[in-house]
Amino acid sequence: MDLYQHFRPEERPFVDHVLDMRDRVEQQFMTLFTDFLDPREAYIFESIIGNDDRFNVDCLFGENQLERTMYALSPYYASVEDKDFPVQLLEASYPAKFIDIKHPDVLGSFLSLGINRKKLGDVTIEETTGIILLLVHQDIAGFVLREFTQIKKAQVTFTEALLGTYRPHPSTWTTHQTTVSSLRLDVLIKEMYQMSRKDAKALIEREWVKVNFKVVESPAFLIEPNDLISVRKKGRARLTSIEGQTKKEKWRILYQRLVQ
């Protein structure tokens, strides 16, 4: 059976990367780390590695703790702890009484530095205390410390913090079950966000919709399990699983909405 048939054509480079990781770990008896993966990439990684008893898979801070996850792939006899991951925790403060900073503000300023998104993990903003926490790959930590100095109109100075002090903030999701006529993006937005299909198409064409953090402009884009959908000003949803089809050939699905 062709492994690639289970994934989108544009996902083939990532599939090849995971296969290469698997081969290198098996042949060279070494531990390799992924970048920070979005939920769909994490699903692909776990689907390929599976329960292969030749390998040990460890996840930073454990499963379902981070929105963007980093994995360690090791020989079956190896063990990896959080402190072994190539991750640096960075911390900065801002005057919360005078400026309002949200997640998109931090992400936009970060990406304006020209850094690969895969090198940034979760972003935590503690609005009451004016604290920003970033999980970044060690490869870019020094650059971020030097160059990431402004968010909106606020001057910020990031410093290194101990990874062991970081406490993940797992998100709360509500689970829903329904049937849909197709797995097109516009159809799922209509169902998940309770709006008309016309309005769903308009949001997509306005480029207000992202799938796995990337803008999707086609209403006909097909959604797969573990895809994360983000709609501006309406929050996030994800397709958890496809449960089969009804006699009328509608898809039974489970999906989740992020509790705001």
From TrEMBL:
UniProt source species: Halolactibacillus halophilus
RNA-binding S4 domain span: 183-245
GO-annotated molecular function: RNA binding
Lineage of the organism: Bacteria, Bacillati, Bacillota, Bacilli, Bacillales
Keywords carried by this UniProt record: RNA-binding
Any matching Pfam family: YlmH_RBD
InterPro entries found in the cross-reference section: Nucleotide-bd_a/b_plait_sf, RqcP2_RBD, S4_RNA-bd, S4_RNA-bd_sf
Top-level lineage group: Bacteria
SMART domains to which the protein is assigned, alphabetical: S4 (SM00363)
Protein name: RNA-binding protein YlmH, contains S4-like domain
